[in-house]
Amino acid sequence: MMELPVLVDCSMLKAVLFDFNGVIINDEPLHERLLDKILVEENLRPNPDEYRQFCVGRSDRACITDLFAQRGRILNPAQLDTIVQRKSTYYQQYLETMESLPVYPGLVDLITTLQAAELALAVVSGAVRAEIELVLQRLDLAQYFSVLVAGDEIAKSKPEPDGYLLAVERLNQLTPNLNLHPSECLVIEDTFAGVEAAKRADMQVIGVAHTYPFHMMQRVANWTIDYYSDLELERITAWFEQATSSLAS
Fold first, then answer.
1. CATH number of the structural domain 15-26+102-248
2. Dihedral through CA 220, CA 221, CA 226, CA 228, nearest 10?
3. Element (H or E) spanning 148, and its range?
4. Domain with CATH 3.40.50.1000 in the chain
5. Which fold has domain 28-96?
6. Cis peptide, bond prior to residue 159, ω within 30 of zero
7. For residues 249 and 68, what is the distance between their CA atoms, to the nearest angstrom?
8. Are 181 and 200 contacting, i.e. CB atoms less than 8 angstroms apart?
9. Beta strand pairing call for 15-18 and 120-124
10. What are the C-alpha distances in Å from 93 to residues 35, 80, 87, 98, 205?
């Protein structure tokens, strides 16, 4: 893990918020293939250089809007809804054909460790809710996440902080005694847009080197790991506690 960040206005760690694509499920190549399929169906030419530019870390709605705009096609809301739903249907159909889903090593152990530490867990993603629910159910992980914020529920995609702030709001609605503040949240992200969204929400971020190399994530995240087994929860929890003590003194 990278060096501990400098102390900021933080409280004790109460919640861990997960991104979805590239953090829970290793499906970025599938999304790229499906977007290419959509473009071909719409008589548009795919460009392999555009996926990272317009799509990685962003919602399907934002990604598809920009891909079509690059080709001179401005989608109205109804057209966008139809295309997003078509891609989601393809995605779910493909996953149904897979005997096992491509998840990252150590994910399940990490989630059970966080639950044992009595931390609230949520998913905040640009993916469609039906896709998130399907994957969590297939992996038998749905029971661990009390809140899901999906891309079809928020108007602004990452790097805007809206999704992470909505997760805090929903966690507080679900458990009022939690009295959760953004500064008491730890986020796990794999993209620059996701890290920026979390930081703009006043949250600390672990960057996991699934989509970008370690040295690139290290430049933007508070902590960086290659594998979930590298995540030192006790060290991070102690940092939150130290930050709180420093602010109180």
1. 3.40.50.1000
2. -160
3. strand 147-149
4. 15-26+102-248
5. DNA polymerase; domain 1 (1.10.150)
6. yes
7. 54
8. no
9. parallel
10. 15, 20, 10, 9, 33
Residue keyed to tokens 């054909």 = 97
Residuewise pLDDT in 10s, the chain (249 residues): 545 454 444 469 999 999 999 999 999 899 999 999 999 999 999 998 899 899 988 989 999 999 999 999 999 999 999 999 999 999 999 999 999 999 999 999 999 999 999 999 999 999 999 999 999 999 999 999 999 999 989 989 999 999 999 999 999 999 999 999 999 999 999 999 999 999 999 999 999 999 999 999 999 999 999 999 999 999 999 999 887 655 544
Q: Tokens 């003194």 sit at which residue? A: 249
| Per-residue tokens: 193 | 């847009």
* Structure token digits, residue 107: 């994910």
Residue with tokens 């409280």: 11
pTM given for the model: 0.88
| One-letter identity of residue 220 | V
Q: Residue written as tokens 């149904």?
A: 96
Q: In 3D, which of 56, 65, 57, 58 has the Cα closest to residue 83?
A: 65
